[in-house]
Automatic annotation (TrEMBL):
Residues 5-117 form the Response regulatory domain. May play the central regulatory role in sporulation. It may be an element of the effector pathway responsible for the activation of sporulation genes in response to nutritional stress. Spo0A may act in concert with spo0H (a sigma factor) to control the expression of some genes that are critical to the sporulation process. This is Stage 0 sporulation protein A homolog. Gene3D superfamilies: 3.40.50.2300.
Length: 140
């Protein structure tokens, strides 16, 4: 089974490094970008999940998400300091699938990553393990 590809778009180098280390320890392949423009250049058909900051220099995360949605249905998880309810709603309306405010726990981030990837893999029909586990419960 191929490693799932996570595109991490975050301007804070310390957060980028911490999240990369966490995800790589869970056997994910992580590509990093420090702004929206370079993140869009790294986005590919192989990308399984995008983790995206909102407040970045140049292109904002909201604008980046809107551009991603023009070409892909890949799950987008906003990871940002903007924590007001209205900020979360704006992020979800811009095309985000989930939203986690900073400061965040690595355990919660990892749980959200796994949940988004599980649903995306089922959507794409690529998660045979989930299908095999569900097989006894499916009606024939």
């Amino acid at each position: 089974m191929k490693k799932e590809q996570v595109l991490l778009i975050e301007d804070d180098a310390d957060i980028r490094e911490g999240v990369r280390i966490l995800l790589e320890s869970e056997n994910y392949c992580v590509e990093e970008a420090e702004n929206g423009k370079s993140g869009l250049e790294l986005l590919s058909d192989e990308t399984d999940l995008v983790i995206l900051d909102i407040m970045m220099p140049g292109m904002s995360g909201l604008r980046t998400c809107e551009e991603i949605r023009k070409v892909s249905n890949v799950p987008v998880l906003f990871l940002t300091a903007k924590a007001q309810e209205s900020d979360k709603l704006i992020g979800l309306m811009a095309g985000g699938d989930d939203y986690l405010a900073k400061p965040f726990s690595y355990a919660e981030l990892l749980g959200r990553v796994k949940a988004l990837l599980r649903r995306y893999n089922i959507y794409r029909g690529r998660n045979n393990e989930v299908r095999e586990e569900a097989e006894p419960y499916l009606r024939r």
